[in-house]
Design brief:
Number of domains of chain B: 3
Number of helices of chain B: 9
Protein name (chain B): LysR family transcriptional regulator
CATH topology of the largest domain in chain B: D-Maltodextrin-Binding Protein, domain 2
Number of domains of chain A: 1
Oligomer: heterodimer
Strand order of the largest sheet of chain A: 2-1-9-8-7
Low-confidence stretches of chain A: none
Keywords (chain B): DNA-binding, Transcription, Transcription regulation
Number of strands of chain A: 9
CATH class of chain A: Alpha Beta
CATH architecture of the largest domain in chain B: 3-Layer(aba) Sandwich
Mean pLDDT of chain B: 86
Helix content of chain B: 25-40%
Order of helices and strands of chain B: HHHEEHEHEHEEEEEHEHEEEHE
CATH superfamily of chain A: DD-peptidase/beta-lactamase superfamily
Distance between the termini of chain A: 13 Å
Strand content of chain B: 15-25%
CATH class of the largest domain in chain B: Alpha Beta
InterPro entries (chain B): LysR_HTH_N, LysR_subst-bd, WH-like_DNA-bd_sf, WH_DNA-bd_sf
Low-confidence stretches of chain B: 85-89
Shape of chain A: globular
Structural class of chain B: alpha/beta
Number of strands of chain B: 14
CATH superfamily of the largest domain in chain B: Periplasmic binding protein-like II
Order of helices and strands of chain A: HEEEHEEHHHHHEHHEEEH
Shape of chain B: elongated
Radius of gyration of chain A: 18 Å
Structural class of chain A: alpha+beta
Pfam families (chain B): HTH_1, LysR_substrate
Radius of gyration of chain B: 24 Å
CATH topology of chain A: Beta-lactamase
Largest interface: A-B, 56 and 42 residues
Mean pLDDT of chain A: 96
Family (chain B): Belongs to the LysR transcriptional regulatory family.
Distance between the termini of chain B: 45 Å
Amino acid sequence: MTDFDGLFRTAGVTGFLHAVDLDTGAEIAHGADQAVVTASVFKVALLVEFFRQADRGALDPSERVRIVADGHTPGPTGVSAMADDVTISLRDLAYLMIAVSDNTAADTLIGRVGLTAVNTMLASFGLAGTWLEHDCAGLFASIVEDAGQEDMPTDPAVVARLRVLDPARTNRSTPRETTRLLGMIWRDEAASPESCAWMRRLLGLQVWPHRLASGFPYDDVAVSGKTGTLPTLRNEAGVVEYPDGSRYAVAVFTRSYGTAQNQPRADAVIGTAARVAVERLRS
Amino acid sequence: MDLVKHLRYFTVVAEELHFGNAAVRLGMAQPPLSQRIRRLEDELGVRLFDRSNRRVRLTAAGQALLPEAQEIVARVERLRALAGRGEGGEGAVLRVGVPPDLGSAVIAALIDGFREADRGVRLAPAEMWSTDQVAGLAAGTLDVGVVRHPVAAADLSFGPVLVQRPGVVLTESDPLAERPSVHLADLAGRRLVLFPGEPGLQEETLAECRRHGFVPEEVHEAQTLGLVIAGTAIAFGPRVELPGLRWRPLLGEPLAWRVSTAWRGEAGPAAEVFGAVAVRVLKENAGMTDDGAAPVRRVRTRPATGFLA
């Protein structure tokens, strides 16, 4: 057996992982049914419901919307970081939400799609452990209320009381349910084949290289994914595709003991653990 | 099997009707919780939960047994509370964790100080690194810890933060041992021994070393100073007097290790007494000072580590 505990421990984190071969169903599980805080990984579920509504004709993905600058949700990337009003199509917002985790893009889509609709979809897929409690603005407000400041806290006493780090009180899932949702996207089961292809393309445009992708430094291997970050939390879930056609959905959720924002080892262990799991599935 | 503990797991799962949520409340992982519920079901010879079709529900037998189980758990808790109130104090124990590198003299002073302050409760100290202490606090196997910052976990509270200024420990044959004090940059080219089980402290210490021009050739995780005595590495820590070793202060005191007591939820009276004793002993016997003395580090956020990245 692989010592995932040892691996995570060396990086100063506790970790939960699920990896599954999308074609054979073979799996590697390490705390795969643990309730975990998704952080931004929840944006994948939102992406799916967005494209399902597009499939039904309930929204037009190419419709342009105007986002005024003072209506932004806080965030370090994309529209959230921009100074001026933006006019942009809904599906390009979906791109920003996935590729750079843009919070304003996500909240604008939630405004169209509805959190309830996403939760209803998740329930209809049988993903009973996956639930969206709030949008990015709600999540931010909860942190500000608990921490008394707008910067992400590093003080251990403040971090310990953040409700958004408690899976029972925030957007949550399990590693196994996260890979199931990704598997549905990769097998054209989550929405129409065209929409699933679009979602795969967006997830393949993930810009952060330091987590899942860092574990697969091979030019002929494709890594698609969505990160998730909150104080002490580092997650990524995605799909790894090998040149022989085999594909693996992997979800890794970690929580660090230390509160420093920059912990390169904690980021890297997501890739290392994913590679260990995938290599075991391939051997 | 510890029947009372298993009954407590049963009551929590019955309240949550969700193994994941129950595991979070109990501060444990879900698989061992499921396993213990199954063991309890085997022990009692009945199924307590219906886990089919993705929803957890109490079976008829589970419903019948739940009030009894709650009663037993509540009575045992009352019993423990009465015992812990310390009339005569028989059996009342405060389980505390302390960092192994604190040294026997400091640990002895902690025990002595606590004995004087609270005669009703016996102190049971265990030497553990911070990650193990946090796991122990979460699992309820530890009442109070003395942890190194930054270390975080849900529902953890901290006492006043103290600062320890470590020096460097070298083999006596190291040329730097001749000097009265050592600058971090002087250590270039050497290997470094750091404590295992202190990931937050490790990150901070390595960042501070890099900032002052010391990039260790290699970092070893070790509990003892064996590698230092053998002359293959250096370590940071409080003053030590051991044959073959020299301790030297670091010029400018660049390292500030922060230490505090920690507990989960509400601190009991014995834990509060221990907290006060620990602060006094760590200041008087371990040379620690109030946190105000340490410079506050401003966090410069980067996109990849920012809110919901």
